[in-house]
Amino acid sequence: GVETVFAYPGGASMEIHQALTRSSTIRNVLPRHEQGGVFAAEGYARSSGKPGICIATSGPGATNLVSGLADAMLDSVPLVAITGQVARRMIGTDAFQETPIVEVTR
């Protein structure tokens, strides 16, 4: 199972972040920036042989993961990125921090 995550909190990911801080089995590492978190998760995966897990909020938080995701993909490093998203009813309305992150990373 997952032992370590690199999670930078934000409004759209706060609930999962708070749950992780209460976990006694998952180590939650707080990076100073989402990009630091994704590259730390990649380094963790490379050194441990386990998938790296990173978490960010929606919008700019999610797009800050893209460089690290591309690097991991091109080097075949196992990495899982979890991001927040605006409410379903808000998608397509140019809501605050709405970004089509699935399409951006496809």
Write the layout of secondary structure elements.
Elements: E1 4-7, H1 14-21, E2 27-29, H2 34-48, E3 52-56, H3 60-63, H4 66-74, E4 79-83, H5 101-105
Parallel strand pairs: 1-2, 1-3, 3-4
List keywords for this structure.
5 helices, 106 residues, thiamine pyrophosphate binding, globular, alpha/beta, 4 strands, 39% helix, four-stranded parallel sheet, EC 4.1.3.18, Rossmann fold
Q: What is the CA-CA span between the terminal residues?
A: 26 Å
Regions with little confidence, pLDDT below 50 for 5+ residues: none
Order of helices and strands: EHEHEHHEH
Structural class by SSE content = alpha/beta
- Number of beta-strand segments: 4
Can you describe this structure?
There is one protein chain. The chain has 106 residues and is an alpha/beta fold. It has one domain: 3-Layer(aba) Sandwich (Rossmann fold), CATH 3.40.50.970. The protein contains 5 helices and 4 strands. A 4-stranded parallel sheet has the order 2-1-3-4, with helices on both faces. Strand 1, helix 1 and strand 2 form a beta-alpha-beta unit. Helix 2 packs parallel to helix 4. The radius of gyration is 14 Å and the shape is globular. The two termini are 26 Å apart.
